[in-house]
Amino acid sequence: MKVAVEVNGVAYERDVEARTLLVFLLRDEIGLTGTNVGCDTTSCGACTVLLDGESVKSCTVLAAQADGRSITTIEGLAKGEELHPMQRAFREHHGLQCGYCTPGMVMAAVSLVAENPDVDERQVREGLEGNLCRCTGYHNIVAAVLDAARSSREGAW
Amino acid sequence: MIPVMFDYVRVGSLDEAIGALSEHGDEAKLLAGGHSLLPLMKLRLATPSVLVDIGRLSELSYVRDQGDHVAIGALTRHHDVQHDSVAVTQAPLLANVAGRIGDPQVRHRGTIGGSLAHADPASDLPGAVLALGGTLVARGPNGEREIPATQFFEGFLETTLAPDEVLVEIRVPKATAGHSYQKFVRRSQDWAIVGVAVARVGGQVGVSLVNVAATPVRAVAVEEALSSGASAADAAEVAAEGLQPSGDNNATPEFRRHLARVLTRRALVEAGL
Amino acid sequence: MSILGNRVLRKEDQKFLTTGGTYVEDLALEGAVHVVYVRSPMAHARIRSIDPSEALESPGVVAVFTAQDIDLAPMPPGAPFANTTMTRPWLADGVVRFVGDMVAAVVAETREQAVDASELVFVDYEILPPVVDPATAADNETLVHEDAGTNVVMRIPEDFVAAGIMPAEAAQEPADLFDGCEVVIRQRMVNQRVAPCPLEVRASVAKWEDGHLTHWSTTQAPHGVKAGLVEMFDLGAEQVRVIAPDVGGGFGAKIGGYPEELLVPWIARRVGRPTRWVETRSESMMTLGHGRAQIQDAELGGTRDGKLLGYKLSVVQDSGAYPNFGAFLPAMTRLMLTGVYDITKAAFSSCSVATNTNPTVAYRGAGRPEATAAIERMVDIFANEIGMDPAELRRKNLVGKDRFPFTSATGTTYDIGDYEGALDRVLEAAGYAELRAEQRRRRESGDAKQIGIGLSTYVEVTNGIPGSEFGAVEVLADGKARVRTGTSPHGQGHVTAWAMLVADQLGIPVEDVEVIHGDTDEVPRGVGTFGSKSLQSGGVAVYQASEQVVEQAKKLAADLLEANPNDIELDKEHRRFHVAGTPSVTKSWAELVEASGEEGLSAEVDFEAPGPTFPFGAHIVVAEVDTETGQVVIERIVAVDDAGRLMNPLIAEGQVHGGLAQGVAQALMEEMCYDDQGNPVTANLADYAFVSAVELPSFETHQMETPTPINPLGAKGIGESGTIGSTPAVQNAVVDALWHLGVRHVDMPTTPIRVWSAIKEAREAR
Q1: For chain B, what percent of residues have pLDDT higher than 90?
Q2: What burial letters (b/e) apply to B96-135, b meaning 16+ CB within 10 Å?
Q3: Any chain C CB within 8 A of the CB of B254?
Q4: Residue B14 has pLDDT above 80, yes or no
Q5: Residue ranges per domain, chain B?
Q6: Could you tell me the fold of the domain covering B60-173?
Q7: Pairing of strands B166-173, B158-159
Q8: In the predicted model, what is the mean pLDDT of residues C338-362?
Q9: Subunits touching A (CB < 8 Å, at least 3 pairs)?
Q10: Which domains are seen in chain A, by residue range?
Q11: Given an 8 Å threshold on Cβ–Cβ distance, is B188 in contact with C694?
Q12: Considering CB atoms only, which of A19, A54, A130 is closest to B2?
């Protein structure tokens, strides 16, 4: 079946099986491999992208369900050379080590702060409950998100 | 990770959906948010041959103040139930519980109708709707019918919906007095090991228990004790009456019964009783 | 002004944050086929028959292989001393020995087709009784390997004595072990099996071209994998290239070659197509090596006024069905047996056994967390037994800072330490006295939520396995630098840290220093990254190579400037060489490279440290325990860690954070469980309690720096310290919260049901 999506502002049309998951449409059919697969039980969040602006786990969305929709992946966050404040904050706070959870974590965080720029630490931790990381212990990720939220409140986004 | 192959049908109307279900019977499953069904299909624990995608029926996504009750369209996402001002002010237990399901990404996709129709006894919303004494509205080839929540959940992953019926609306009485949802988990994103929902509707208290049986159950003994004037602490003591919860890696049946009592007491207290 | 010791942001991050890294799964190879392994759903069974016929008819299927197709020499034994009759076959040969054991390989055009076809391989099993409990495996009632005649894989001290690496007398338990002890306490503890859970699962890709093999692997040790492939296929070194591109975490479980990974090149050669394998998380939970899995019987003796005199630990190590490094972990436990304490009499024995479960391997700490967890638990129990504050009991028995190098009762020589300094620091940082006061208040008021304060003082060994590591530095024609390192980082930040080492010596800025790793064509030799060894081996190699390059450059500059090399100075800030006293006449790096002609400006070093190093620290955890539900909430984690001189505190802290999270997770929530039929019960990330951000607080970390004399950088390893210190601190905190209720021990993980059961039992016993 044909599926047409807009990803990071670019239109794509691909022929896929009905059972093709959105994450595999992005990775295998479109070639955007930034979004990763970390589990098979919708637990880890490594596959998080924005679907019409909201964070979703792309491993639990059929490509067919995203037909005609707009998707943002990690590759679409920066504006050319200029990093998104969330990306910048992750770097400044050493919020990544192996990098595998990072694209999903960043997209989940972007969605979280967009919905609530006034997040406090507890809300950041709860807001990232669906994103697992094995390397960082979350400490620096939380610091990065709080920092990015502050810059959002200051209008930097 | 890879589901078994299936045919996919996206319907443009409720009637089309009902038609597709009638045509394919047991072989078809409805796809709304997909966050109950797709995880099972990815592990090949569910292998429907036809998926009927009703996810675009936006006319089924709403939260409405209907005077004496709140009506929620079956395709309303958990995130929307959590944040909608009518839900938050008129059915706060439901809004609260919706916000406890899974994680934010799951809540952006999962729907109240999908969760209720899937009827996993460990899921949160069935317990809340049951405590509120809600009504489920289903539509089939023969029209619409109303099913009280107390008659909706039949068994493990089983409801009284006919194979060709679509759940379209959930109605809950307005309940703005104290409420509580005690969800006992290991990790924040997990299913409840045991959950207790308390709603105060009119002068009555509804108490329901999550993950202590094959369906969510009303803690009838607790409710009766409260109506006879028992204190929260005393009423909670009978929360486990008649329960035969299962054991698993997280809890023995005895521990579940104990948690039912403790969490019921805490829920009643939080609800102002 | 050295750059070393500064919080330099990572160069790696740009890529990970914008396009994501390039992991093995991301590689698309033209014309590749996909492999899915058919795995046993039984823990122990005889294979009566395998019928691949329906699978072969399935769309897109290229081949189905079983054991009889594999024409390779057997896999090498998984661990030192491992019983070679327990060697793992490539594919199960007549018997399956754990749930997940590989039975067949299905090869198809697409992954979907391979998955579909894998369900059509019909295997007829004759179920055999499994042996799942390591405690009774050595009874040999049911054997995992018939031919072995036993389930015992290795014993310490017996096997060490037989191999001549331990004198027979040292193996004897001292007859006077507990002489003079007024108090001897005994406790059985379980250091439970856990799953490493790197966020990236395993993947393996292979491509042959004219007899040359390129193999992409999610390994922590690409050169080791290459050596294995050279041997496997009887190739010349120039015919094999192994590439570990970005790797999404390893934690010890991705060091060695698994049959899943190594069969991919074999399949690729057999079918004549590039071949890809990517496991699912469920597969990984079942078959990526597990960690820990020790049953420990400990005895600690001392005087009533708190002098610890004797300690004994007996361990049963669960090795799983095909013994791997996991079987060897007790040797590491024995190394660090007495920890930070000056206990002169100690005895250790272990028995590693096979069971019908997934093999155990090294996992963050690899044997040392087990040692620390055991003694720290025992010290707490002893303290409570004699009515002494646990911090004071520790203080009384710590090895003093003037005693180094210190040789422990098990013959391990620690380089340098300041254990009392770490203890003082953590007590102060935590506000210990106020915490005890709060605890008293809640005990008096009978609050349903009690506070527990858990302490641990630890020392651990890093770079424990002898060997050298490779580092090369070259200055390029444009004046930038290039490093080739034998280390294989997968999150540890070597690209930044090694660039800092070069920048420190050469003055070339970090952004102009390229660091190459993970490609055996680009890096001639190497060991890899594990055991917290990289900085003190590979980092030193890079540092020394940098020094040599500077010396070469000075000689060249001396020629060009017609001076004595001893009079040449490198102005690092301006990256120019000049004669001392004549700063205006200079030569740049680029000019010197040009002048060096064919020779170039480069150096290679194989650095072997004269010995391991011993980072140490003290952790305090404050836990709130809900005595009605057994729920434990971690309120504070205060960690003092000393890993010698820190090259980049930002990266070092990150390593501590990750270690703390995994340590807390083991104590609090994670356990890889099997039922009594050998079925894995926690075989996905929904069932396995992989800790999330909600269960952890922000950490309070404090770094001490006591430089080690062992290497020129004064650096020890830090990657595993967090895990080693925090696990017993959490467990001690939970028990501490309940001691007044009569609870003296709760096994890990301290789940609500365990905590509640312990409280109930203690109450009923009164």
Answers
A1: 99
A2: bbbbbbbbbbbbbbbbbbbbbbbbbbbbbbbbbbbbbbbb
A3: no
A4: yes
A5: 7-53, 60-173, 179-270
A6: 3.30.465
A7: unpaired
A8: 97
A9: B, C
A10: 2-76 (3.10.20.30), 85-153 (1.10.150.120)
A11: yes
A12: A19
Residue C760 tokens, joined: 């109930």
What is the nearest CA distance from C394 to chain A, expressed in angstroms? Answer: 28
Mean pLDDT confidence for C404-416: 97
Phi, psi for A99 (deg, rounded to 5): 85, -5
* Helix pair angle (C222-233, C259-271), 10° resolution: 50
Q: Is C83's pLDDT higher than 80?
A: no
| In the block, residue with structure tokens 């799964």 | C25
In this prediction, does ipTM exceed 0.95? yes
Sequence letter at residue C20:
G
Q: What are phi and psi of A148, to 5 degrees?
A: -65, -35
A137 and C661 within 8 Å at the Cβ level: the answer is yes
Structure tokens at C709: 């004399």
Q: Decide: helix, strand or coil at residue C345.
A: strand
Contact C506, C573 (CB under 8 A): no
Task: Find tokens 């996206």 and name the residue.
Answer: B10
Residue C394 to residue C453: CA distance in whole angstroms = 14
In DSSP terms, C622 is beta-bridged to C453, C636
Chain A positions touching C634 (Cβ under 8 A) are none
pLDDT at C430: 98
Average pLDDT over every residue of C31-52: 98
- Expressed in angstroms, the distance from the first to the final Cα of chain A is 38
SS3 state at C583:
strand
The CATH fold assigned to B7-53 is: 3.30.43
Best CA proximity match to C16, nearest among A143, A105, A49: A105
Q: Phi and psi (nearest 5°) for C609? A: -70, 145
Q: Which amino acid is at B217?
A: V
Comparing alpha-carbon positions, the chain B residue that sits nearest to A105 is B105
Secondary structure of residue B171 in the 3-state scheme: strand
pLDDT one-digit tens code per residue, B166-219:
999 999 999 999 999 999 999 999 999 999 999 999 989 999 999 999 999 999
* Cα–Cα distance for residue pair C373/C192, rounded to 1 Å: 11
Q: Chain-wide mean pLDDT for chain B?
A: 97
C570 vs C1 pLDDT, higher one: C570
pLDDT digits (tens, 9 = 90+) for C649-690: 999 999 999 999 999 999 999 999 999 999 999 999 999 999
Question: Exposed, middle or buried: residue C688 (CB in 10 Å: 0-12, 13-18, 19+)?
Answer: buried
Q: Does CATH number 3.30.390.50 belong to domain B179-270?
A: yes
